[in-house]
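Human:
If only I could read C-alpha cells as easily as an amino acid sequence. I am handing you a single protein, as its sequence and its fold in C-alpha cell form. I hope you can help me see how the letters and the C-alpha cells relate. Thank you; the sequence and its C-alpha cells follow:
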Amino acid sequence: MKLSISELAKRIDHAIVKPDATWQDVKQGCLEARELGLRGICVPPCYVGRALELLEGSGVRLCAVVGFPFGFDLPEAKALEARRAVELGADDVDMVINISALRSGLYDLVLEDLSRVVEAAREGGAIVKAIVEACYLSEEELRAACELALRAGVDFIKTSTGFGPSGASVEVVRMIRSIVGSRAGIKASGGIRTYEQAMSMIEAGADLIGTSTPRAILGGARPR
C-alpha cells in the first residue's frame, strides 16, 4: 500500500496524554496537528475547551480520553466524563474499557460501561473508540472485548493506551480485524514512532494511527 504524506496525515491522531504533559505541551500539539494536517489530536478532558479554541477552523478532530489509562472508573463516572467532554467540544471519545472486569468475566459490567459512554457521546454527535489494552488480554479475552464493544455500538477498537507493557502490534491488529471484520474501524496506538511501523499497522488492517511522534512518522514518508 502507498499513501501520500497528506493521506497518511489524515489517518493520524496525535496524542498528548502523558501524566506529566502540561498545557504548553497540549498547545504545541494542537499547533503541530494544524500544521501537519492531521486527522485529530487526543488530549486530557481538562484541556478540551482550551484546545478547541486552538483548533477552530482547522478540520482537526478533537479527541478526549475517558477512563484513562486504567478503565477502573464507575460506568456513570465515565459517562459523565464523556458527556462533558463532548459538550466542551470533543469530536471523539477514546475510552478505556474496564479491563479488570473483562478479565474477571464480568461481561455485564463491561457492556454497561461501554454502552453508557456510547450513549453519552452520541447525544453530542461524537464517535467512540474503545481502548482494549490488548497486551493484557488472551485471544479469548480480546475477542470478548471486541464483541462487547460492537454490541455497545462503538465506532473503533483501539489497541492500547500506550501505558501498558507493550503497545500496538501487527499481530494484534490482524487479530482484531479478523474479529470485527467491517463492523468497526481499528486504531493502532502505542509505541508507533516511525513511518515503517505506521504503514505495517495500516497494511495489517488499521484505519487510524495514534502516536505522540507524528512529525517523525510523516518525515519518513515519500511524496508521490
